[in-house]
Design brief:
2 copies of one chain form a homodimer. Chain A is of the alpha/beta class and 415 residues long. The first copy, chain A, has 2 domains: 200 residues, Spore Coat Polysaccharide Biosynthesis Protein SpsA, Chain A (Alpha-Beta Complex), CATH 3.90.550.10; 195 residues, CDP-alcohol phosphotransferase transmembrane (TM) domain (Four Helix Bundle (Hemerythrin (Met), subunit A)), CATH 1.20.120.1760. Helix content of chain A is 51%, strand content 15%. In chain A, helix 2 links the parallel strand 4 and strand 5. In chain A, helix 9 runs antiparallel to helix 10, helix 9 runs parallel beside helix 11 and helix 10 packs antiparallel against helix 11. Chain A is elongated, with a radius of gyration of 27 Å. Chain A starts with a strand and ends in a 5-residue tail after the last helix. The interface between A and B is large, with 48 and 48 residues.
Amino acid sequence: MKAVILAAGMGSRLNMKPKPLLKVGGIEIILRSMKLLSNHVDEFIVVAGKFYDEIKSFLEDVPFKHRIIKNEHPEWGNGYSLKLAKDHVNGKFVLLMGDHIYSEDFIREAIRGEGLIVDGKPSYIDIEEATRVKAVNGRIENIGKGLEDYNFIDTGFFILDDSIFEVANRLPDDVSVSDIIRDARLRVYEVSGYFWTDVDTEEDLKKANWLLIESSIKDTDGLVSRYINRKISTRISALLINRVTPTQMTFVSFITGLISAFSLLFSIQAGALLYQLSSILDGCDGEIARASLRKSPFGGYIDSIMDRFVDFLFLGILAFMFPSSLLPALFAIFGSFMVSYTREKYKVEFGKKTLEDRTKYLIGKRDERVFIIMLFCLLGYINLMFWIIALLTNLRVLLTLVTVWRVEISEGGKR
Amino acid sequence: MKAVILAAGMGSRLNMKPKPLLKVGGIEIILRSMKLLSNHVDEFIVVAGKFYDEIKSFLEDVPFKHRIIKNEHPEWGNGYSLKLAKDHVNGKFVLLMGDHIYSEDFIREAIRGEGLIVDGKPSYIDIEEATRVKAVNGRIENIGKGLEDYNFIDTGFFILDDSIFEVANRLPDDVSVSDIIRDARLRVYEVSGYFWTDVDTEEDLKKANWLLIESSIKDTDGLVSRYINRKISTRISALLINRVTPTQMTFVSFITGLISAFSLLFSIQAGALLYQLSSILDGCDGEIARASLRKSPFGGYIDSIMDRFVDFLFLGILAFMFPSSLLPALFAIFGSFMVSYTREKYKVEFGKKTLEDRTKYLIGKRDERVFIIMLFCLLGYINLMFWIIALLTNLRVLLTLVTVWRVEISEGGKR
């Protein structure tokens, strides 16, 4: 299947850059769509107008098969852009707006549809500016910006087949896609409630950026992460996402962690606060990676290993400074490791992505440990802190083993 | 597909137990075959004779669908047993001897064949006692024990179809399977060089037991494991395999490890020797599990977690006893842990079973670490030992990271 991307817009009110090349959520709008569609689409047909050169040069570095067509009359309306794609597609194809931002969830659902994908309850766009659709019996009755009587919003995403060109050719060249599909009485397919949007103002851009980061939060977060760290890390990510790579953030958080550990030698309080800061920053790489579709196994791998090293260094230096607490310190270091190890090894042996929900509510995840360590360091109770972390982590490990035993032996095979 | 298992033999020379119910390599001969065939076969037809009651009662606990038929005239020869299976199979079916031991590799190849599975170079059986086959143009010309002119050995494993019963019915009731297939001029299919055998004497039993354990050794072993530990652990496994479960062996090795750590408080030398003993015993659970087809994810999971705990306890107690070595001790504990963690986490993130061969020759695996620790403890160089383990393990971790970087980034995607 091929996809036609209409990118012949006349430029945005934002700046003189073509909208499809604006970075939102860490990635150019058009590239996000291409990445998300790349599993379903084998070639992209991009129709560009005024910004043909910029878009062409941008696409040169893009690893997806594509062809770029020049629309010499972008002022005629986007229907003419669609017409230009006629000779490059056959059978079923996807049509989408190059300046709309679609989320992974939206595309996953939309790709299964047929006709115009419409949204019945759009939460993320400005209804005033939106193209409204009146559908009757699953087909378009009317479509347009000012429509008073409407039941859906046009998402700018279509699953068409080449019969649309017969309709298009009956109409004059200076029509819009809306005119063509109204005339075709195209089917509508509802995909409601997922994030997609069109950006027109600086405000829209910021909002879209923020929503993409917010939706990239993992649902396996611990309590401290959920109620404290994420509130801060997402704001940092939103500020930085269009400027840094996830790997850079991994190293920023790692370096902060190293500094926090060595700061202990000068001030326990400063070290503790920096440790908590590194834990907050530790959320940013994942947020940026997921929001900008740059999540990678190597990123996850190196991030988790650096976490282990920072934890070891922080607790190890503290153990050195308080040798009388060596016993709980060793168990705290061991337990902190084992929380991760028992979880990862479980995935390896049982080939599952996560352990059952039962461990989800156990306290002792990294965000929670770091926070507790910080609190007790600030209060000066180092020995007590070691005991608490030792107990908490080793208890969590024990409960993990019991859970695995229950899940896999009671309900699974026996050895 | 169904499988017919001939288990109407008149009893062995070994003892009065029916041969199919003898435990070899930790599992009854007939149950091994059933387990290995269970992915290919949906019902087992077991023909029993003199030992019908024993076999029937044994099969009651077996989790595979089966039907047991009584042969009232086992003295007539095993051809009559085959005839009795006629009404219970249709189309293609497997026929095998209930008293033969087949390895996983043999069955994997044999199941793809057609006709009589023959072995051109049997390494594990007594040619004098074996049934010899003369095949010409892929079909049986002659078959029998005393045959002078032969090119194959009968493995007692067949892939037949129900046309064999037409031939069988033309022959008298007191014939052997050999007589029937000779008359049918059955096809032969060569599967050579894999372990399979028939056991007649105590000697045979021991040999088969040993071969099954030897072939269960993992090829990811470290140097110490390969040249020292396995020589001893396989002998222990061979002695115990028909008496203990893998889980019991896991606990024996774990308890030995715990004792070794606490022994340090009384004698470093005794502790060190016991630690090495626990490392040797640590091989037995896996050997027994694989040889007896009882390998389980939970077994692998709990075994590796107990290893981590024993290592931590041993090095932790030593660190306590030699507080001046705390710095290298902490890094030795950390590095030992990270050797496992970086390997397991790699499997999780990249969905691969093992890291590339490149890390295979890095020293620092558990068997090697334990051996080095033992040596230096015996010599009394505790501080040096901690430094060596700290360097060795952390170097291995570093090289693992570099390898992952090379394999996954140079050759894979980029973040």
